[in-house]
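User: My advisor, Dr. K., asked me to get a structural model of this assembly before our group meeting. I'm new to this, so sorry if the format is off. These are the inputs:
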Amino acid sequence: MIGLELAVHEAIASVDDPEYPGVSIVDLGLLERLDVGADGGVRVGLIPTFSGCPALDMIKADVAAALAAVDGVRSVEVVWLSAQVWSVDRIDAETRAAIGREFTVSIRMPDGRSLCPLCGTETVELSMFGPSRCRSVHRCEACAETVEVMRS
Amino acid sequence: MSLSDRSHAIELILAFADDKHLMGQQHAEWIGVTPFLEEDLAFCSIGQDELGHAALLYELLVDEDDEAAIDGAIDALAFGRSADEYRSCHFVELSTDDWAEAFVRHWMFDLADRLRWEAVASSTNEALRDIAARVEREELFHRMHADGMLDVLLESDEGRCRLRAATEKMAPLALAMFEPVEGETQAVADGVIDRPFAERRDEFVAAVEARVGPIDWGEPPSQDGRRVRSADWAPLMARMREVFELDLEARW
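Assistant: The format is fine. Below is the predicted structure of the whole assembly, which you can bring to the meeting.
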């Protein structure tokens, strides 16, 4: 049983966010509920970053496909939960660093500031809305770099 | 949500959902043609939120279990009803090619929408309450955007002048957002909303005038409890259905 739960968790964690190839949806804090039944029935509850996110169906399908490939899983149900509200605070420090390094995307800090992923200087907002619903566009005055900031 | 939970709230949910669905489409039609890039990005993201909220709301009215059937039922609600079955207000049905009017509508709609959704924040209907929390968190950005842009536009004489003209044109339509929906009295009695929408109208008027000064609010259109569509509804819906109707059996 513990073995199956681990395998199931690992399968979900193997799904990357389509916006950030290489970054797991689990590390982004999208996984809220996981229920693995003794009969091999798996129920997954995910939280959307924004309700209009066009990647929701894709992520859901990816999770279902990853779980279907796990030995011992008999049925899979993946749902998007509307009761919980996602926030960037659900992203852990290691993932924040990785997203900064790989994508030059800064994650807004709880105090509202965001730091340039390249030099650590506080960034200045250029546009509240950016290339996707969860990102705004900032600029680092120190290194003259455009920085996307992920925020909730 | 079970049928009995929502039967008294159907009209209310449809009014919220149809407004958001059409508002989302109106914003989307500005993508690529707004006066500058920042507004393009903003209208894209804001419209996306509205469509996402509309889908969540339509789903509350769907009785299917199977995923494909749920999607189909949401599409049928969004695109497949006859004109008299929609509950949108005329404000979101209006098509405009004037940027000032489109921007002012975004500002006024999000301002009014907040006051309406606040009535749901402590709803006895759990599913609606959850959506209200999500809507408020996402629409905070809409209001910040509108307020920030207003600050800039109100600095110049031309900006003030055009904003006032656009606001006066939109004013009567915006007021009609607060018109009672069918079953509203019962919804208040049941705690689905905490007060009639019309009670927030004066706050809306004050908030608008606090930015552009006193304006003539005109006469709200006759919407008959949102049962009557305006002239712009049919062409708007035709544009919305254009792709959908290419292949009615397709899964999107």
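One thing worth pointing out at the meeting: Strands of chain A lie at 16-17, 20-24, 31-36, 41-46, 75-80, 105-107, 124-127, 135-140, 145-150.

User: Perfect, thanks a lot.
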